[in-house]
Amino acid sequence: YLDAIAGLDHLGGFADKAVGELGNMHQSILVHADVHKGAKGGDVRHDPFQDHVHQIADAAVRAECEDGLATRGRGEPPAHFEDWIVHRFGRGVARHFMLPYNRKLWARDLRRMSCDWVGERIAGGDAGGGNTAGRRPLQSDSQVAYPAEGGFVAIFEAMARRCGPVAFGQQVCRIDPVARTARTLAGDEWSWRRLVSTMPAPQLLRAVEGCPADLIAAADRLGVVSLKILLTLVAGPVGAAPQRVYVPGDDSPIHKLAFNHTSSADLRDRPVHALMGEIAWSAEKPAPPDATLRRASLDWLADSRLIGDRGDVIDSRIVDVPYGYPVATPERPAIMARIRDWLAPLGIHTVGRFGGWDYVNSDACIWQGIQLAAALRQDAENAGPRPRAA
What we know:
Layout: H1 2-5, H2 11-18, E1 25-29, E2 32-34, H3 59-71, H4 81-106, H5 118-121, E3 143-147, H6 153-160, E4 172-176, E5 181-184, E6 189-191, E7 195-197, H7 201-207, H8 213-220, E8 224-235, E9 244-246, E10 256-259, H9 265-268, E11 272-281, H10 290-303, E12 313-326, H11 332-343, E13 348-350, H12 362-383
Parallel strand pairs: 2-9, 7-13
Antiparallel strand pairs: 1-3, 4-5, 5-6, 8-11, 8-12, 9-10, 10-11
Helix pairs in contact: 3-4, 7-8
């Protein structure tokens, strides 16, 4: 596994090698489309936006974006995320796409966000801030592998068959680091020697007996974006829809829309298709009632002709995701270092998107688990055999 995954950029490559039982992986072109209907520029059909400003219909907006791109990167280094956007893409692209989209996505003042993460997440973000040694952002010609049948979930179902036992519907509420036990709300209890958690860091600390109150308070300062996920089932095959649509305008509550049935021929041929829309919210940007969000989103999908009409909607529902995206703030690295330093001597390790409070995808989370497993195995080998009980 370690040799197979090292240096790979995308989950598909890992799954194709490490989850051999999946066999055939469908190689699809991940086409991004930035629906720009809410701005004066009209529609830009490909991502990254800054590479396709020539598609903007409004000549004045197009010229503003082109002028900004020509003069970008001047002045003082950016102090925060909003500064970085203007510095990296110029004022035109920032005003007409990058700022409204990111304010909608992050649901907060961008001036309170750091920019040390942008090189791995934003196409064209490899200069002016951010580490470029890790993940490479998806481009308009990026190739991503998906299972030929079953969709994205088939990867994890195949992995789960190699693990076990897996207990669903459980919530860990109490971790005793002295007795080395973990108890759930259902009353089940497990013993452990070393515990690996992907729970959100504040929840984990509250579950661990003896955790200092000031450490929990620090964890509570970690920023989070919550999501309302609109799941919609639509009559008819998916057709020529793009896989993803990014929406900066206020005419839609959705900031990102995914047509997941574009991921394989098997899904494309089905008589119905599914859409998944993300709606971000936070204390600074509260979410309207679900009924309002659902009605406004479906109206926008029909008006934008991303679906045929409202009559084609077979079913739709909204799912709450309290922990959607971790927010990069200047104090995040120091807080997470304190948390890990306190947990490590107890034999507790925290990884994953909200375990590590790091904006990573499932491929990176899997890789973190593999790396941690290798380190724990090496530690056990170095320690030698455990003494037998008398």
